[in-house]
Design a protein that fits this description.
Layout (H helix, E strand, L loop, with lengths): L1 E12 L4 E12 L5 E4 L9 E3 L3 E6 L3 H5 L4 E7 L5 E14 L12 H12 L9 E7 L6 E6 L5 E10 L1 H14 L8 E10 L1 H9 L3 E4 L2 H4 L11
Parallel strand pairs: 10-11, 11-12
Antiparallel strand pairs: 1-2, 1-7, 2-3, 3-4, 5-6, 6-7, 8-9, 9-10
Helix pairs in contact: 3-4
């Protein structure tokens, strides 16, 4: 992983057009090819990024970029689309590279991991006709908990939490963005599943076309006999 702190500006073009004016930012270049621009705020989410497969080329600025004060121009081109991220680097304040090795992945707490196992075994909870593709389906930014297909063969990505909040919806949104770039999967629907889903998370999920599913942990593991309830 390469970490560069620099005064830079950036332009993104392709599916959308966006511009970041000149400021000091952290540029992260990962071993998988992804390039991310971070500010010193906004929590974990980058200001802009390019996910693999993509290529990074570093070159000298043209006359116009030189007049703006750029010393280098980084061009990140997606290999399967016209998406392009161009970073004009004006001043490098820090530049280092680190070998992180193979990451073992996120280890979920016992309940969350068990919910994933139970839902995979009871995939019909998503709706009649659903079939499991696999658990921990890999993406460039980490595995989505479950990938399934509905009765019509449409791919369904499921993110599972104990308590569903806005961050979980944002995480699933990023997974869906990547999965929908794969022509063998697209279109991919999203399902946000949790024991409890906060109202704000439900509103955001609905706005983004993501279905919400409340999971009854006790019922799924056979501890709670739903049929014997009085109410």
């Amino acid at each position: 992983m390469r970490l560069v702190v620099a005064r830079c500006s950036a332009r993104y073009s392709g599916r959308l057009n966006a511009h970041l004016p000149l400021a000091t930012r952290l540029v992260v270049v990962k071993a998988d090819g992804s390039v991310l621009l971070h500010s010193d705020g906004g929590s974990y989410k980058p200001l802009n990024w390019m996910s693999p497969p993509c290529t990074l080329a570093i070159g000298l600025p043209d006359d116009e970029a030189t007049e703006r004060g750029a010393a280098e121009v980084w061009t990140v081109q997606h290999t399967k689309s016209d998406d392009r991220l161009v970073i004009e680097v004006h001043e490098v304040l820090h530049d280092s590279a680190h070998e992180l090795g193979v990451d073992p992945g996120l280890v979920k707490d016992g309940v969350e991991a068990h919910l994933q196992e139970l839902l995979a075994a009871q995939i019909g909870a998503l709706g009649a006709g659903h079939t499991l593709v696999r658990r921990e389906f890999p993406t460039a930014i980490g595995p989505v908990d479950i990938l399934a297909r509905d009765a019509n063969g449409v791919a369904v990505a499921v993110e599972i939490k104990r308590r569903g909040d806005i961050d979980g919806v944002e995480q699933l949104t990023r997974y869906l963005e990547l999965l929908n770039r794969d022509p063998h999967l697209a279109p991919v629907r999203g399902v946000f599943a949790a024991q409890e889903i906060k109202p704000q998370a439900r509103v955001l999920a609905t706005d983004r076309g993501i279905a919400c599913l409340v999971l009854d942990y006790d019922a799924m593991r056979g501890v709670d006999d739903v049929g014997s309830r009085l109410f």
